[in-house]
């Protein structure tokens, strides 16, 4: 969200920019050729292109930095255009940025937006990014003088930020919901004159009526990192002693990226370039009041407004009081090589900072939480554990009660199952934070939930509201989840969910969330309007070894597998929602095609090969090796009927039985290292697959399959490997269309190796 102070700053920057830009002709304000008296500032000019029956007008309100442009005409399309153009001459590289804040609906295909045009003739070469009242954005272009227009479309609604960027002969279009996070809408290589015209275009698509649009915060010749970051918010003190204060804040946003934070104490810069969103001040004076503020800055040095000030008073006396000793030390689970410990939290006159865990009298590790997993132990061996608490001042508590635990004997089973959470509502996807928290989605409720210190928090991380959509006994809802690789610092998580469009259709979208203290808010929609239906919504969401976001959508009841139809595809995006330049199809998020309902994605360690699980029709479920740009057959071919020109056959498929494969993961530790685990819904099992190699390609033989937990837990939806080598999977029995209504669980497979 752009704050009032930020709008004022941008307005000032815009005015300064206009003052610096070169002007041509006389220095007075230009009066448009149709005789309108509305005034716009230099170097802006206005012209009705293509002689529309109704002349347009333009005006500027400097108080709010807003242009109002009216225009009529048949369209901006075909071989000749009719519209009103508010423009200025332009030479070289740069960009035009604007917020389309309103648009009147003279026709569903009326258009308002930004344009780069070679001449002022109606048949000129041009590139534009336009918004329509009812049909979303269109990235249009005419590559030859007098040629026919072409376009790329995407659904969205006003108000919306739009940007056209020119670098040499390459022009790119971007859209944004806040002017900071830009999504790549399309790009074009077009040879135009170095000197051309850039501006705001409006057409009514109706020769008898004008359409009027307002454009806020227009910037021309904007290059590089345009905006400063938003100011940090939610500044708060977490722990205070007589000489220390720990503060934290919610991360800022920037159009390119936040590079650090400057911290101020009593309006004096005391710490520069802090990378995290938390900092501990030391060396403070007891019983003293301080005021802290934080500013964000980006790579080119743009600095945000200051956060709201935080007033903190240190305690009056030196903290010499140690925390109380931890109590209730127990071991809820163990394996042949690990012991899980939990205890009751200590108390302190200020606050507990951390816990130190001792194994046989030697420090084994520490944690800020009340649980710890001691690993690397010897099978069938007794260990004695104690825990001590520490505060910020370094005071250490007495030891907890001593707990003696004997590890399990060496087991022929590499894992021991244990229930982590019960009575869940159709859990769908699981991921881990580096601090030990476990996040997962619940499909039907639209909730992201979290397990902290081994306990499920009753308050959801987020409950999705409108336009989130779930139909009982369907396959849509809140599906995939993955945490950003830099979640520790940026707190981003990504979800895939179904929603209802404005015309009451089911669609799917990928959304980025921002988490703070186990509460998340919607930060950015990365891609929307993916085909949806009652069934076959795909939904798996993963981040690959290349740091790109991969996700899959199904193809239900549609025989179209063209590149313009997004159903039945696996997609690849940058983490900011833009399209990678090395995707197999230019300017497209599509990575592979010809999929019926892919529900699992996993990369093979060592090779970084991507594997996908896919539901077939009446069995014929598939495990595919995904290569960029390849076609995997659906809707024409599936199962063993795929040895066709241009079609990539599966590595293996279910022949005469049904797996309904869903989540999948490669094991990296223990005796199953290198194996692929695939959860099954209808099969009610996990299949362990050994991956072979032949002629430089992976293989899977039916003789190399092992069926685990058959009918023991019911339908199994997802499986992931945790950093400690544990495996976690979730069941899908309660609220699923083929479930038996039994309570759903999150189950840990604790390693015995």
Give an overview in words.
The chain has 753 residues and is an all-beta fold. The chain contains two helices and 55 strands. The strands form 13 sheets. It has a seven-stranded antiparallel β-sheet with strand order 1-4-13-6-7-8-9, with no helix packed on it. Strands 2-3-14-5-10-11-12 form a seven-stranded antiparallel β-sheet. Strand 44 and strand 45 form a beta hairpin. The longest helix is centred in the first third of the chain and has 17 residues, at 4-20. It is flat and about 90 Å long. The model is unreliable at 1-37 (pLDDT under 50).
Structure at a glance:
With 753 residues, the chain is an all-beta fold.
Notable traits:
55 strands; seven-stranded antiparallel beta sheet; mainly beta; 753 residues
Quick one: biggest sheet? Answer: 7 strands, antiparallel
Oligomer: single chain
- Helix content, binned percent: under 10%
Mean pLDDT: 88
Helix/strand/pairing category: mainly beta
Q: Widest sheet: strand order? A: 1-4-13-6-7-8-9
Radius of gyration: 30 Å
Strand content: over 45%
Shape: flat
Instruction: Give the low-pLDDT segments.
Output: 1-37
N-to-C terminal Cα separation, in Å? 50 Å
Number of strands: 55
Total count of helical runs of at least 4 residues: 2
